[in-house]
Specification:
Structural class: alpha/beta
Mean pLDDT: 95
Number of helices: 10
Radius of gyration: 20 Å
Bound molecules: zinc ion
């Protein structure tokens, strides 16, 4: 099969991936082989090939937003031809304390698609059958692929924040994850207050029907029930906290934050306000989100690239030049 491989010994900036002919993965128990129809390109992929993330494998096929069809290793639950979506969490050990307590997103021994095991920048991918999420009818591969990372995590953030129908919810930062979250919030009859730095992001929030939009120094005109922060900045978390009613929750959707500024406990956290981080996702998050995405007819704008152009796709993500989410169609 053809694949775009990141070989850490030969990769150079801009030519991170080499397009190679390599053996198709052999079926193994518990693993299904899928024919890749589309694979989203995420900023995390760039962090992997630029070595911002620790190198786990010297040679790896990136890609953790895979949509494909089962071609080998079919099971009763996943008959041949089933369309599935595979995300960043490609497996867990199933027996650590977290897995046994319904928190597989925090598993001590997780498998990461396209990072610790080969991902979807290829014609075929071998994935754990129990982590291949059946795709609801109506979701097209190229539109479903970009939903499998930012979309699912954005959805999980709403869960971690404990959003209930009709609430007032703040979104701090307005990139791809937030622009999907706002549509879910509207489907739940929530009023959405957006604080965003870029003019373009604020315009996008207005166009998507935010109740109020402000720049990074603005404060929503009402007290918020919940807030989700997307920016990797501690200041933003404190801003969100200062807009919260008593008993409200801030969910931090960022893997890394710069320094968290000191803040006034008595005024900002007292009153049973909560600060929570959002880490990874569970299979249930992915499945529930995909069902919702299909009901809400999510069709994110995409820019497609062939497998041969995988480096160009990464380049487009790096410089934010793609018109929509970058998706590789092998
Ligand atoms: Zn575990
Ligand atoms: Zn991702």
């Amino acid at each position: 099969m053809r694949a775009a491989v990141f070989d850490s010994t030969t990769a150079t900036p801009g030519a991170w991936l080499s397009i190679e002919e390599i053996p198709r993965p052999e079926p193994r128990p518990g693993v299904v082989l899928i024919k890749v129809r589309a694979c989203g390109v995420c900023r995390t992929d760039l962090h992997i090939v630029e070595r911002d993330l620790k190198l786990l494998e010297p040679r790896i096929i990136p890609g953790h937003q895979i949509v494909g069809e089962v071609v080998e290793g079919a099971t009763e639950i996943l008959p041949a031809g089933t369309r599935v979506g595979v995300s960043w969490i490609g497996g867990v050990d199933g027996d650590c304390w977290f897995c046994r307590h319904g928190m597989e997103n925090l598993c001590d021994h997780p498998v990461f698609t396209g990072y610790s095991v080969n991902g979807g920048y290829a014609e075929f991918a071998a994935v754990r059958a129990d982590f291949a999420n059946p795709l609801p009818a109506g979701l097209e591969p190229i539109h479903a692929a970009p939903l499998l990372c930012a979309g699912v995590i954005g959805f999980r953030s709403l869960r971690v924040a404990g959003v209930e129908h009709g609430e007032r919810v703040g979104l701090y930062g307005f990139g791809s994850s937030a622009s999907l979250a706002i549509r879910i919030l509207h489907a739940w009859d929530c009023q959405v207050y957006v604080v965003a730095r870029g003019e373009q992001h604020r315009k996008a929030a207005e166009a998507l029907g935010a109740a109020w939009v402000g720049d990074e120094d603005a404060k929503p005109p009402v007290e918020l029930d919940r807030a989700i922060t997307f920016a990797p900045a501690g200041k933003v978390v404190v801003d969100a906290l200062s807009a919260l009613r008593k008993g409200g929750v801030v969910a931090i959707n960022a893997i890394h934050l710069d320094q968290m500024p000191a803040f006034d406990y008595d005024r900002l956290l007292w009153g049973e306000r909560q600060l929570r981080s959002v880490a990874n996702m569970t299979r249930q998050d992915a499945r529930d989100f995909l069902t919702l995405a299909s009901h809400l007819d999510f069709r994110p704008a995409v820019a497609t690239f062939s497998l041969d152009d995988a480096n160009r796709a990464l380049e487009a993500v790096k410089h934010e030049t793609a018109d929509g989410s970058a998706v590789i169609v092998p």
